Amino acid sequence: MGMNPTQIFQIMNAWKKFTSNHPKFPRFLQAVASEGIKENTIIEINVTTPEGKNYCSNMKITQSDLELFQQIKNMQ
């Protein structure tokens, strides 16, 4: 079950707007992808609300995570 051309076009336009609003983020993703995520890589996510509340979490990448990433990549 694939996406129709209208959905693909909408997503592409939304991605263009996102990258225009956040130009450093795609470059960050490219840099990480070029280095490659390996087992024991730590990914940390930090979120701060407009009110100043902070949420932070991290995870250490396992071999099974890498296998999942590869399966997702193969779906595209």
Structural summary, described in words:
The two termini are 13 Å apart. This protein has a two-stranded antiparallel sheet with strand order 1-2. Helix content is 55%, strand content 18%. With 76 residues, the chain is of the alpha+beta class. It is built from three helices and two strands; from the N terminus they run ααββα. A hairpin with a 5-residue loop joins strand 1 and strand 2. The protein is extended and about 40 Å long.
Task: Name the assembly state.
Answer: single chain
Spans where pLDDT lies below 50 across 5 or more residues: none
Question: Widest sheet: strand order?
Answer: 1-2
User: Which series of helices and strands comes N to C?
Assistant: HHEEH
Largest sheet: 2 strands, antiparallel
How far is it from the N-terminal to the C-terminal residue, by CA?
13 Å
Shape: extended
Structural class: alpha+beta
Number of helices: 3
The percent range for helix content is 55-70%
Rg over alpha carbons: 16 Å
Mean pLDDT reading: 91
| DSSP strand content | 15-25%
Strand elements, count: 2
